[in-house]
Amino acid sequence: MKSILLVARKNLPDPFFRDSVVLITRSGGPTPVGVIVNHPTDVPLSRVFSDIERLRSRDETLFFGGPVMPEQLLVVFRAAVPPTAAIEVLDGVYMSLSRELLRELLGRENPVEGLRVFAGHAGWAPGQLESEVARGDWHLVTADARMVLEMEPEKLWKELERRASATTVRYEHPAGVGRHDAYHSVRQQVDEHR
User: Fold this and answer.
1) What's the predicted TM-score (pTM) here?
2) How far apart are CA 13 and CA 166, in angstroms?
3) Which of 158, 162, 145, 120 has the alpha carbon at shortest distance from 36?
């Protein structure tokens, strides 16, 4: 796989990423990029796309994807056939910046089924994310479509942080393994997912 979830450690001081779960991928280039998958906004999609009739009676909202280019919309969605203008981030799950593709997806009979729309994204400079992981800012969790597109966003961070913290403690303490070794173990897991 090309993607993994970053789960922010408890009490991460960065206001953009506090209590965040971030789907990251390297599929789009040399440095990781991603979207925060658990921070819905109060902005209804029907307001963003007021001309799309099928959205008018829907309650789904725009998600805050990250602090990079917040004016740019990005979509993560399921598709049986790989679409053009999108990269595969999980089996059958794609990410795209294409406004035309987004409008096409929102024009379907069930416009938001298997789909989330994000304003902005997250990005890191070369080596930055690895340093943050080594510092303990993030837990790494295997990503799956259900977590990204189906779980209640308000509950996602709490559940994944609880699971990841329990795993980290098991790695670091009972066997006498230090943080450095635990980081390399996790780093190897990330590399295997590429």
Assistant:
1) 0.83
2) 21
3) 120
